[in-house]
Design a protein that fits this description.
Elements lengths: L9 H21 L12 H24 L3 H4 L1 H25 L2 E4 L6 H12 L2 H12 L3 H4 L10 H21 L1 H4 L2 H17 L4 H5 L5 H22 L4 E4 L8
Antiparallel strand pairs: 1-2
Helix pairs in contact: 1-2, 2-5, 2-6, 4-5, 6-12, 8-10
């Protein structure tokens, strides 16, 4: 597809094309880059292919560095991540109805059904992007060095207090969102992680009890990298999200 990329996997080449095409379309057609006061609707269509391209590119980079990737190992499971991602992010949108930490400019241009459909498709890209970037981050040398770190108590010992703390944080956030809004992210993890421990699934806690900090460092790094691209590509796109966070409005 792109001969100058040599042996870069074909799905990665497709991903790069999608990123280049829809990055330009989202920014140039919205009019915000040119300073327009009446932006055009573009990202409701362009968000999904842009982030699909990102996810494919990242997966291809993982393949180049490790010799295998999520797509090469099990492409069906990879596709299922898109299905899981949609309801997961709707959960955070539901919480945001209470906290009001972000809203979407251009929302009024869509009916409720249109908004639900376009948003659901866009939300489906979150987990594939984060998980793929986390796996890419796991190949970084500094993250590999966190394999032998401080060991924590056993996951079974921590799971019950962690579960209780998670519900307490969620309750505080819903009660006083102005002060406890940072719990929006960590409370959900504190609730879900113990459930996975009890179900016998792979968890971050099981790695930490062995002193292996690689998964949590890789996931945190993956989230930060995705966050950078989310905010950058959002800046000149329309519709777009805008933050209204207490105490830090000067940002």
């Amino acid at each position: 597809m792109l001969p100058f990329l040599g042996r870069f996997p074909i799905h990665g080449q497709l991903g790069l094309l999608l990123v280049l095409i829809f990055w330009m379309l989202n920014w140039l057609l919205s009019g915000l880059l040119q300073g327009s006061d009446n932006p055009s609707l573009t990202s409701h269509v362009g968000f999904f292919p842009l982030w699909l391209g990102y996810s494919l590119t990242v997966d291809a980079l993982v393949f180049c560095r490790k010799g295998h990737s999520m797509i090469s190992r099990n492409y069906r499971a990879y596709m299922q991540l898109f299905l899981v991602s949609c309801p997961v992010w709707w959960l955070f949108e539901l919480i945001n109805w209470r906290t009001g930490n972000w809203f979407y400019q251009g929302r009024d241009s869509f009916s409720n059904l249109q908004y639900f459909l376009f948003a659901s498709v866009s939300f489906s890209t979150v987990i594939p992007a984060v998980f793929g970037t986390a796996e890419l981050s796991s190949t970084f040398s500094w993250i590999k060095r966190t394999q032998s770190g401080v060991k924590i108590a056993s996951s079974q010992t921590l799971s019950i207090p962690m579960f209780v703390i998670g519900w307490c944080m969620l309750g505080l956030m819903l009660w006083k969102p102005k002060y406890y809004f940072p719990f929006v992210w960590i409370s959900v993890h504190f609730i879900i992680e113990p459930i996975n421990v009890w179900l016998g699934n792979e968890t971050l806690l099981r790695h930490l009890e062995k002193g292996d900090w690689r998964p949590i460092c890789a996931l945190a790094t993956g989230c930060l990298i995705c966050g950078f691209f989310w905010e950058m590509w959002n800046f000149y796109s329309y519709p777009k999200w805008v933050y209204q966070i207490p105490f830090v409005g000067f940002f």
